[in-house]
Design goal:
The structure is a single chain. 42% of the residues lie in helices and 15% in strands. By secondary structure, the chain is of the alpha/beta class. The chain folds into two domains: 166 residues, no CATH class; 159 residues, Rossmann fold. It has a seven-stranded parallel beta sheet, sandwiched between helices. α11 links the parallel β11 and β12. The longest helix has 21 residues.
Amino acid sequence: MPGAPMDGEPQSKQPPTDRDPVADQREHALGALWEMAAASRYDVAVLSTNPDAIPSSRLREVSGAAWMHLKGAAGIITARKSDAIVLTKFKTPLLPLLMLLTFPWAKQVFMVVHHTIQQAFGSAWPRPVLWLAARLGYGLLVFESTEALRCAPLDSIGLRRVIEIPEPGPHSSWWDTEPIPQGVRDPAIVGVVGERRAEKGTDALICELKAIQQRGDAAIDILVAARNLHEYPGELLEGVLTMETSDMSSYCEALRRCDIVAINHSEDRYRHRTSGVLADAIVFGCHVVAPDYPVFRYQLTTPTRVGATFTSLAGVGAAIASVLDARGGKADPFTPQRQRRLPAGMAAEFDAQLESLL
């Protein structure tokens, strides 16, 4: 028996949805950065080198990616009179090609490097690319905090021109008018939200949540929401609520239905980077239970605490219990977190650091 769909609940007010799912996903990836650029007092351009669709052929994929990076270089040249150019969704092995064509304008370009920095911790090859970018004068745009990343691999790169901003949530039109949830449902809904991929460890997390439920460690219901929900084994979803998130609207609705969002991202892929699902959950007023990685800890405690961490799956139950205790209080920890991620808040942090680098 498959998991039970969540029907019959009132729908929250949503932004206009007269756009296709591809546009929705693109907006989630870039919309908040576009908003930040628009709110900045400087002339800021935001560019992406990521194609909307990747061809199935490996040769076509590589050639298509190279073409997109050439177009990215053309975009930088076109926007060269801007005060700053934010470059995102690039492929690290192709950065030398892009830098070869754009180094005269390096000091205007800030590369969003949370993926690349994680790669630099796990492998040596991205480090010379980042080292070269830093020496040529390219800036790095880091989500959340470089202090949480300080250790030998990153120090060897020699960070010079760095701007730190919060991990963006979805485009603010999805959540800026959402009321902060008051209290918590009984039982609380713990969501496992996002695409099912091996590095996200969702299967083991669902098993642990079901064990917590069966033992009575916490009064919870479990919601599994994913755009590839059909890839989960049917037996794993028995007894849990399910929701297919085929577009941005349904993804945001899944977050609205959660009291807590739990993630179990693997250490080798996420220890030194931020989580987009974590940031998305925060702006919708969900507490978060996450692995005890340095940047995750920073996300969950700055400027206010909105979750708990665990060092192994055996600690998920205790983390949920601590979150439920905190959620029963009268204090509102979410408003300061959301204000940082509104366009004005992100632009203020970006502008203050850009001013010192111009």
